[in-house]
Amino acid sequence: MLNHITKDKIKKEGLHTIKAIVGMKDAAQIRLVAVISKSALAAKKAEGEFYLATTLFDKTGTISMPLWNSAEVLSEELTVGTVVFVTGTKGSYKDVPQISMKTIEIVDDIESTAFIPKYKTEVQILVKKLLGYACKIKEEKYKKMLEAILGIKIANDSYYEVTDKGKWEAFINCPAAVSHHGNKLHGLLMHTVGVAQAIDYMVTSYKTFDGVKVDPEDAIDADLLYFMGIVHDYCKTNEYTYDTAISRKENILVGHEVFLIGEITHQNILLGNLFTNEELSKIFLIEMLHHGDFGRYKLPEHEKNNQPLEAQLLHQADMIDSQIVGNIEKIKVPKDK
């Protein structure tokens, strides 16, 4: 049985992050507190026995740690989500960094979620921005559908009530990706606000054209576009898990686009068929096309010119946030050492 310790028994001086360990030379001494994100018995090639293939995770990255002895016994204690204090040396296998463990102890008083990176911006600041964009929706049926999907009732741009805690908390906590922009806690909310912000610029900026006052809403269905901007990625809550590390759920065979179509269909029935089949078909098409050429669903070449303008604009808003902000994060955001 492994020894159990508490965090106050671990000397903070000399602790390494995974990112720091990866940059070390082989045989360097390491001390690390991390969470086990993968743990599985694997067969040794020569002896016909098992070793325990584990992966450690912290806010700076992941690294493998094969455990060669007492694998079956250790597998019962070193399960996914277990926080451990490890000493040993940095090694590598086929030029891939790994840890050669000397000692390992289970840390009882650190939650595994403490190792998942999250954005510094307060959630309620992001929520307030989101409410502001949601309140720009004028048509009641879009507002009702939005509230049903998110699990809230919006009073104004500063106040809301939670009607479905599970749905709402999943939305505001979920990451938006595993390895790209939004791959932190609250990433989905952050990305959604960014897309809505880009849409707001599209809708509000073209007040004059060639010296003539115009209303952009003559050319754009603004309610539809705001609605889609806010809900287009909502069903990533069905795709990602983030209990111990951010990853895509196993055996999920379709993307969030398909899940959202199912969610809207379900909510439309519960709301007394607010949307006609024709309106739903347009919403569904916009959702399926919002990844543009990067998506799984593409229109045949001869139909591309017939896609709704809102589909093109949603895709562009999505790209503005994911690509521009993604690059800003790479360049400007300080990295953990």
In round numbers, the mean pLDDT is 90
Query: What is the number of strand segments?
Result: 12
Number of domains: 2
Strand content: 15-25%
How would you describe the shape? elongated
Distance between the termini: 33 Å
Strand order of the largest sheet: 1-6-5-2-3-4
Largest sheet entry: 6 strands, mixed
Tell me the radius of gyration: 24 Å
List the total number of helices.
Answer: 10
SSE ordering: EHEEEHEEHHEEHHEEHEEHHH
**Proportion in helices:** 25-40%
Structure report:
The protein has helices spanning 18-22, 71-77, 123-134, 140-150, 165-173, 187-205, 222-231, 256-270, 277-289, 309-332; strands spanning 4-5, 29-43, 50-58, 61-67, 83-93, 96-107, 152-154, 160-162, 208-209, 212-213, 240-241, 247-248. With 337 residues, it is of the alpha+beta class. The chain folds into two domains: 4-112, Nucleic acid-binding proteins (OB fold (Dihydrolipoamide Acetyltransferase, E2P)), CATH 2.40.50; 123-332, no CATH class. A six-stranded mixed sheet has the order 1-6-5-2-3-4. It has a two-stranded antiparallel sheet with strand order 7-8. Helix 4 runs parallel beside helix 7 and helix 9 runs parallel beside helix 10. The longest helix has 24 residues, at 309-332.
